[in-house]
Amino acid sequence: TNEFAFTDDPFDKMPKLRARLLANENPLGISPNAKEALVKAADLGNRYAWMEFAQLKTLLATDEGVKPTNIMMSPGSSDILMAAADHFAKGGGTILTSTMTYDDLLQRAEKFGAKIKALPMTKDYKFDLPAIKANITPDVKMVYIVNPNNPTGTIIPTAELEAFIREVAPKVPVFIDEAYIDFFEPAERPKLGKLVSEGQNVILARTFSKIHGFAGLRLGYAIAQPEMLKTLHAYTNGEFAVSITTLMAGIASYKDVDWQNHCRAENAKARNYTTKALTDMGYEVIPSSANFILFPIRMKTSAFSNQMFANGIGIQTRDFNGQPYCRVSVGTMDEMAMFMDSFKKVVG
Ligand code: PLP
């Protein structure tokens, strides 16, 4: 099984936090345009959201180079992950992935009968695609890849990922969890939609929880072949689980490219500041392309976590191969300064 699990459950300590840096949320909040749309949506709360679904899917499909029928909306991407876990666990078989990745889908699939085969990452904490390719055996039902990866923040070069999908997807479905894709600079963002329009058996999972700041509002979607979406749909509560308020806010946020650029730039600034401050102290920070940073620490995870929380700083800790790590979400510059201040105190 995936050995990279939470070592602490910090959520009961949340109310006392000065800096909530444990869930990769957007510290800047939602777009002002999305707020306005939420208020307008209140007047439409009595209506089913048929037109709004169509409007958002058309926007997304146009940008991704797919058809609206290649898109299924959901209340957050977790629903897509869970549907895939349920479907591919049915009747047993193996889900192939790497160690040290997001394990919600994996844990669920394991609970419902799948075997999880998590291969070691490369030395620089990336998915080892050649190793995954070499392990595609007849019992493998699905490959799960997270790009950018959580918790390492690492990315797979786009050309390598595309070649991998073209080779593997004809044999076994490839699930790419792109929760953090919006943190790529727009010019460098992988455009895997074109592989879907080529007919490849790939499932892309997306969320508004990160750069759009919708973690509480709940909005996500899958991009895949229509037959695959139909299969996954059967394991969900249906698209109407997304409210008209969230949809209208989502449309406004999606169109507010200035807000997304602002959040991406602020994230990069605070991430660079924190990476440099930790590196200056002699810590080896894994280069991150997302809104969190992972680095090995020199204290036991429980002692470190307890002391950071006692200082009002919420972070996450994990043990991996006997090495303790801290994962800190990127907050505002003020929050990262508070984090560094407490970190220095705690590690002495
Ligand atoms: N996938 C990854 C890699 C994540 O880190 C998260 C949340 O942090 C999710 C999926 C689920 O996010 P949500 O259900 O809010 O879209």
TrEMBL record:
One of its GO terms (molecular function) is transaminase activity. Residues 21-341 form the Aminotransferase class I/classII large domain. It holds the Pfam family Aminotran_1_2. Gene3D superfamilies: Aspartate Aminotransferase, domain 1, Type I PLP-dependent aspartate aminotransferase-like (Major domain). SUPFAM superfamilies: PLP-dependent transferases. It comes from the Bacteria. Keywords: Aminotransferase, Pyridoxal phosphate, Transferase. Belongs to the class-II pyridoxal-phosphate-dependent aminotransferase family. Histidinol-phosphate aminotransferase subfamily. This is Aminotransferase class I/II.
